[in-house]
Specification:
The complex is a heterodimer of chains A (315) and B (662). Chain A has 315 residues and is an all-alpha fold. Chain A is built from ten helices and no strands. Chain B is elongated. Classes of the chains: A mainly alpha (315), B alpha+beta (662).
C-alpha cells in the first residue's frame, strides 16, 4: 500500500463522515421502508400474541418449533406479508439506484449540494445507472454459468474421488472464486458509475470500457481499496451479530433493536466508504487530465425582486 | 445363550474394553469376546422360524455382491405350506418398479431418489439358482408377483412352489445363488465412493401372519417385516476394509487374493445388514447395564470424528433409559455406522443390533441432530427390532411409538426445552418438533393406514412419526406420564420377539391404565379429527353496570361478573381443563368434557379477570393452535417487539443486499 492509496482509504472514510447527512438519510429511509414492509405482519402478530401465553415461547429465548407451529396455522400472521416485504426491498433498491448519482456527485465534487441540486444529480444519472444495472445483470449471466459449471464439476469430483474432501475443497475454492469475481464486477461497475458522474459520460458502454481499462491497469490498487473496507464491514457486522445472538439477554428488546440498527448502519456506512474511496481514487488518478466535472448542478434561480406585471396578449 | 454370552463378555471386556473412545487402527472389526454359542436346544429369546446362512463376496469396485444363501424355514404356521414368497428389495431401484412409480407420483420419505430417474440409482438382485431340498431346482418356477398393485413390472416379490407341501412342524431348506448390484446410496442402502452399506440385500422369505403370507412389495413409504431366527453370515471384502455388521464376529481369515473373510453370527433377530469402507475409523466403547456389558462399536467416516463422542453419549443415555423405563436390552452389542459425506441417504436407519447415524462436518453442538438420530435408531431396537411389528401395514407402531420414546429420552437427557436445538439465541424441545411435524399434515390420513396408502410421503411422515408421537404425548394428560411409561413397559415385555398389532398396543394401554380409551383412539389413531380448543372470550363487567359513569368508573360494591367462553373449533372431542385467574389473586378451575361446541363460565366476584387458560400444564400437544388457548387481560408485547426487531432487520438486510447491485 503506498501513501496515496492509504490516503484515499482514510480520506474516503473522512468523506463519509463529512457528508454524513447522506448516511443518516439512507439509514432512515432503509428503516422506514423496513418498518412499512413489516408493519402489517407485526400488527397481526401482536393481535395473536400479545394477550396469549404462547408469547412466552419467544420472550425468554426463541423457540423455533413454536415459531414453525405459528407459521403452520391456516391463518398464520407470519407468512401473508412476505411478498409485500419483498416488494418494499425492490423499491428500496430502485431508490438507492436513484440516489447513487447524487451520492457520487457529492463525493466527487466534495462540496455540499443543495437538496434540489442533489436530487437533480440523482435524476440526471438515474437512467444511465439503470442501463448499467442491465449491463451488470448481463455480465452476471456467464458468472451464473460458471457457478453451474462448478456445481457439475463438484459432482464429477465427488463421484470419482475416493475421498469426500477434494470435492468439498473444490466447492469451497469455487465459492471463493465466484465471490471474488462478484467483487471484481462490482468494482468495475462502481468505477463506471464514477466515470459517468465525474466525466459526464453519457455512453455507458464507453464508461464500462474505460472502467475496465482502469481496473485492468490498477487492479490490485482498486481491489485492495474495496476489500479493506469489506473486511472492516464483515468484522463489525460479525461482531455485532455475535453480540446480539450470544451476548444480549433474550428479553433485551431495546438493546437488540439498537444493535441490529447499528449493524445496518455499519453496512451502509462501509458501502458509502467504498464509493467515496473509489471517487477519491479516480479524482487523484485523473487529477492531471480531468478538469472539473462536466456535470454541474443547475444554477439556483435567484429570487426576482420585482415581478414583471402580467400583460395579457391583445387580440 | 444369553447368560453364557454375558459371562464371556465380562471376561472379554476385562481384556479389551478399557480404553473409552479409543481409536483402533484400521483393520477388521473384532468382537471384544469369543463368539456367541451356536444355537442350542436351550430356551431362546424368540421363536426361531428362519435360519439363514449366507456367504457373500463384495466387489468393492463394481459394488456388486455374489452370494450363496441357505435358508431353513421351520413351518410353524400350523398348516402345510407349499408356496413361499420372498422379498427382493433391491429390485425396487429400477425405473418401472412400484417403488419408483410411487416416488415419481408423490415423493418418498425425504432422502430417497429424485423424482427424475438417475441411472446411478439402479439397483438389482438376481437369482441365478434356487433349489429346495426335496424339490430340486426351482429356478424356472420362480414367479414375480405383485400383491399390492397391478404393476407387472415390479420385481420385488417372487413366489415359488415346492414339489410337495411342508408339513406343520417340519422344515424346508432353500439353496439360493444370487447377485446384488448396489445402487449409489439411496433409501437406506448402496455405495458412496469407497463406502458400501449393504441392507435389505438378500432374498428374504415372507411372514406367515394372520393366517396368510404377508410379503408386500417394496414401496416408497414402507419399510420391512420379517420373522425371527438366526443368521450365520460370511462376508468377503478387501483386506483394507473395515466392516461393521449386525452380528458377533466369530472369525477373520486373510485370503491369498488380498481379501478377508469375516464370519458373523446373530440370533433372535429378523434381519442382517453390514457396511464396509477402508476409510472408517473404529471407536469402541462399552455400556455396563444391569444385564451385563453391551459393546458399542462406532465406525466413523472421514471428517465426522467430532461426532463420535456425541453418538456414544446419546447411545449410552438411550441404553440406560430404555433399560430403566421399558425393558432390558438383551443383546451384547450395538454397532453404529456413520455414513460418509454425501452418503446420508444411508443414514438414520435401523437394523437389529446395527444402526446408521447421521451428522455433518462441523456440526454445531447446539444442533442435536446426531443425538436425535442415534437415539431414534437405537429406539428401533425395541420398536421394530424386538417388538417386530408389521412396518408395511402399521408403520406407526414402530416409527410413531419410537418417535414418542425419542422425545421422552431426549427430553430426559438434554432438557425438555432444549432437546432438539440448544443455542443461546434459539431453542427447541423434541415435543415441539414432533408437534410441528404433525402440523405439517394434520388431517390427511388416519394414523392406522397402510404405509403405501398415505396420500403422499409428507402425509406418511407427518402422520406416522409426528402425529403418533403427539397423540401419545397428549395421552399422558389423560392417563398420566407414569402410567404411560408402565403401559409401554408392559407392551414391550409382553410382545418382544413377536409380531403384535396396533390393537395389541392399544389394549395394553387400556389394560394398564384401567380406562376405556376407545373414544380417544377412535379419533386419534383411526380418525382424522382436528384438535383445537380456544378461549373464545374472557371479560369482566361490573355487576351493577347501570351505576357506572365517567364520574364513578368502578362499581360501588366492587362486584364484577366475569364471563369466560371456551370453544371447540375442531371435531376432536376431548376433556379440557380451564384455569381462570382474577386480579385479586384468586383462581377458579373448571373441567369441561369438551363435547359441546362451546361452554360459558360465569363468576360473580369482587375482582376482574386476569387470565383464562386451557391446558395450563402444557400437555395437550395435539391442539393445533397454542396461541388461542389462553387470554391475558394484561398485554405482554415483548414477543411482538422481538419479532418486529427481527423482521425489520431481515428486511433491511435483504434491501441492502439488493441495493448492492446498484
Amino acid at each position: 500500500m503506498d501513501r496515496t492509496e492509504g490516503g484515499t482509504f482514510f480520506r474516503g472514510a473522512g468523506l463519509v463522515w463529512k457528508w454524513q447527512r447522506l448516511l443518516w438519510w439512507i439509514f432512515a429511509m432503509s428503516l422506514i421502508f423496513a418498518h412499512l414492509a413489516t408493519q402489517g405482519m407485526v400488527e397481526r402478530l401482536g393481535q395473536a400474541l400479545n394477550h396469549s401465553d404462547a408469547s412466552q415461547f419467544f420472550v425468554h429465548g426463541f423457540n423455533v418449533a413454536q415459531l414453525g407451529a405459528l407459521a403452520a396455522q391456516p391463518d398464520s400472521p407470519l407468512t401473508s406479508d412476505m411478498p409485500a416485504a419483498a416488494h418494499y426491498s425492490v423499491v428500496f433498491m430502485i431508490f438507492m439506484l436513484f440516489l447513487t448519482g447524487g451520492i457520487l456527485a457529492t463525493y466527487i465534487r466534495d462540496e455540499r449540494l443543495r437538496t434540489g441540486a442533489f436530487f437533480e444529480a440523482c435524476g440526471y444519472h438515474f437512467w444511465r445507472f439503470f442501463r448499467l444495472l442491465i449491463y451488470m445483470l448481463i455480465v452476471f449471466l456467464p458468472l451464473a454459468g460458471l457457478g453451474m459449471g462448478a456445481g457439475a464439476m463438484y459432482n464429477r469430483i465427488d463421484e470419482r474421488s475416493i475421498s469426500p474432501f477434494p470435492a468439498v475443497h473444490f466447492f469451497e475454492a469455487s465459492a471463493i472464486v465466484l465471490l471474488f469475481l462478484l467483487v471484481v464486477i462490482r468494482i468495475w461497475f462502481d468505477m463506471a458509475q464514477v466515470i459517468a458522474v465525474a466525466d459526464d459520460e453519457k455512453r455507458m458502454h464507453k464508461a464500462l470500457r474505460r472502467a475496465f481499462g482502469l481496473l485492468w491497469h490498477n487492479f490490485f490498487s482498486l481491489l485492495w481499496l474495496y476489500i479493506r473496507v469489506s473486511i472492516i464491514a464483515w468484522i463489525f457486522i460479525g461482531l455485532g451479530l455475535a453480540l446480539w445472538m450470544l451476548g444480549l439477554k433474550p428479553e433485551s428488546n431495546i438493546a437488540a433493536f439498537l444493535l441490529s440498527q447499528l449493524i445496518i448502519l455499519i453496512w451502509i456506512a462501509t458501502r458509502l466508504w467504498q464509493r467515496a474511496s473509489e471517487s477519491l481514487w479516480y479524482r487523484r488518478h485523473a487529477a492531471s487530465s480531468v478538469p472539473e466535472p462536466v456535470w454541474t448542478p443547475a444554477p439556483v434561480m435567484a429570487p426576482v425582486a420585482v415581478a414583471e406585471p402580467y400583460v395579457p396578449p391583445t387580440t | 445363550m444369553r447368560l453364557s454370552s454375558l459371562l464371556i463378555a465380562a471376561a472379554g471386556c476385562t481384556l479389551f474394553c478399557a480404553p473409552v473412545f479409543s481409536q483402533a487402527p484400521p483393520g477388521p472389526l473384532v468382537a471384544n469376546r469369543p463368539p456367541a454359542a451356536a444355537p442350542t436346544s436351550e430356551k431362546t429369546l424368540s421363536v426361531r422360524v428362519v435360519a439363514y446362512t449366507i456367504d457373500a463376496k463384495l466387489d468393492a469396485t463394481k459394488h456388486t455382491i455374489d452370494a450363496t444363501e441357505t435358508l431353513t424355514y421351520k413351518n410353524l404356521t400350523g398348516k402345510p405350506q407349499q408356496t413361499f414368497p420372498f422379498h427382493m428389495y433391491l429390485n425396487a431401484f429400477q425405473p418401472q418398479s412400484t417403488f419408483m412409480t410411487e416416488v415419481r407420483r408423490s415423493g418418498t420419505r425425504g432422502n430417497g431418489p429424485d423424482t427424475a430417474w438417475d441411472p446411478k440409482h439402479f439397483g438389482s438382485i438376481t437369482i441365478d439358482k434356487l433349489e429346495a431340498d426335496g424339490s430340486g431346482d426351482l429356478t424356472s418356477k420362480m414367479q414375480f408377483i405383485h400383491p399390492d398393485d397391478d404393476n407387472a413390472a415390479d420385481r420385488t416379490v417372487f413366489q415359488v412352489s415346492l414339489a410337495s407341501p411342508v408339513a406343520p412342524g417340519a422344515s424346508v431348506t432353500f439353496h439360493i445363488t444370487f447377485r446384488d448390484q448396489l445402487p449409489e446410496v439411496v433409501e437406506r442402502t448402496g455405495y458412496k465412493r469407497d463406502f458400501d452399506m449393504v441392507g435389505q440385500w438378500f432374498p428374504k422369505v415372507g411372514v406367515w401372519w394372520k393366517d396368510a403370507w404377508n410379503c408386500h412389495q417394496f414401496h416408497a413409504n414402507s419399510e420391512f417385516f420379517a420373522d425371527f431366527g438366526t443368521f450365520d453370515v460370511k462376508v468377503t471384502v478387501p483386506q483394507n476394509e473395515l466392516v461393521g455388521a449386525a452380528g458377533d464376529l466369530l472369525s477373520t481369515v486373510k485370503n491369498s487374493d488380498g481379501t478377508q473373510t469375516l464370519t458373523y453370527h446373530s440370533e433372535d433377530v429378523h434381519d442382517f445388514s453390514w457396511g464396509a469402507s477402508p476409510s472408517f475409523t473404529l471407536v469402541n466403547d462399552v455400556w455396563n447395564g444391569p444385564q451385563g456389558p453391551v459393546q458399542i462399536h462406532v465406525l466413523m467416516s472421514p471428517g465426522n470424528m467430532p461426532s463420535a463422542p456425541r453418538y456414544i453419549a446419546a447411545l449410552k443415555g438411550s441404553l440406560r433409559l430404555f433399560d430403566q423405563w421399558y425393558g432390558p436390552y438383551p443383546y451384547d452389542r450395538i454397532t453404529v455406522i456413520d455414513p460418509p459425506h454425501g452418503g446420508s441417504d444411508a443414514g438414520g436407519m435401523e437394523y437389529p443390533t446395527l444402526i446408521t447415524a447421521d451428522t455433518s462436518w462441523n456440526m454445531p453442538k447446539g444442533a442435536l441432530a446426531p443425538e436425535i438420530v442415534t437415539e431414534h435408531e437405537f429406539g428401533h431396537q425395541y420398536w421394530y427390532g424386538m417388538v417386530a411389528t408389521n412396518e408395511f401395514e402399521e408403520a406407526w407402531l414402530d416409527e410413531g411409538i419410537n418417535s414418542y420414546t425419542e422425545a421422552k429420552v431426549m427430553n430426559e437427557l438434554y432438557g425438555k426445552d432444549t432437546s432438539a436445538l440448544n443455542f443461546p439465541f434459539l431453542q427447541s424441545g423434541e415435543n415441539g418438533v414432533l408437534r410441528l411435524e404433525y402440523l405439517g399434515s394434520i388431517d390427511s390420513d388416519p394414523i392406522a393406514t397402510y404405509a403405501w396408502k398415505f396420500r403422499d410421503s409428507n402425509s406418511y411422515g407427518s402422520v406416522t412419526y409426528g402425529k403418533t408421537a403427539t397423540v401419545l404425548l397428549t395421552l399422558e394428560k389423560i392417563i398420566g406420564e407414569d402410567t404411560m411409561r408402565q403401559a409401554l413397559h408392559t407392551y414391550f415385555m409382553r410382545y418382544r420377539f413377536t409380531h403384535p398389532t396396533g390393537e395389541d398396543f392399544l389394549k395394553t394401554i387400556e389394560e394398564v391404565s384401567g380406562k376405556d380409551l376407545r373414544w380417544y383412539f377412535d379419533q386419534g389413531i383411526y380418525g382424522t379429527n382436528v384438535f383445537d380448543y380456544r378461549v373464545e372470550d374472557a371479560h369482566s363487567d361490573p355487576l351493577q353496570w347501570w351505576d357506572i359513569s365517567h364520574a364513578h368508573p368502578k362499581p360501588a360494591d366492587g362486584m364484577y361478573r366475569t364471563y369466560v367462553t371456551v370453544r371447540r373449533k375442531g371435531d376432536f372431542i376431548c376433556p379440557v381443563d380451564l384455569e381462570v385467574k382474577f386480579d385479586d389473586g384468586s383462581t377458579a378451575t373448571e373441567h369441561w368434557d369438551g363435547k359441546d361446541r362451546w361452554i360459558r363460565y360465569q363468576y360473580d366476584r369482587k375482582a376482574e379477570i386476569a387470565s383464562a387458560r386451557i391446558d395450563s400444564q402444557d400437555q395437550l400437544w395435539l391442539d393445533r393452535n397454542f396461541v388461542n388457548n389462553s387470554y391475558n387481560e394484561q398485554a405482554d408485547e415483548r414477543a411482538t417487539h422481538k419479532f418486529r426487531n427481527l423482521w425489520v432487520f431481515a428486511s433491511e438486510l435483504f434491501s441492502q443486499l439488493l441495493a448492492w447491485l446498484t
